[in-house]
Backbone:
């Protein structure tokens, strides 16, 4: 099961639909549970988990907390 997030363009309500990927591939028509409109757009899916590598592992420099003499001016 994958959770797909949608935004209804008619009533501007966000909702989620859980379905199999096979159903989604078959063109499962999502419907807004609030106004039953099919005028919806995808907002996200739980498969879309991109882990951004934001860990900066700076190379050892002499400007750290244990800087030696003659470093950093
Ligand atoms: Zn709606």
Residues:
């Amino acid at each position: 099961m994958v959770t797909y997030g949608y935004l209804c363009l008619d009533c501007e309500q966000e909702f989620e639909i859980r379905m199999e990927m096979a159903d989604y591939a078959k063109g499962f028509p999502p419907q807004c549970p609030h106004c039953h409109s099919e005028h919806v757009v995808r907002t996200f899916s739980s498969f879309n988990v991109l882990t951004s590598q934001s860990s900066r592992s700076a190379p050892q420099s002499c400007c750290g907390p244990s800087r030696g003499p003659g470093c950093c001016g």
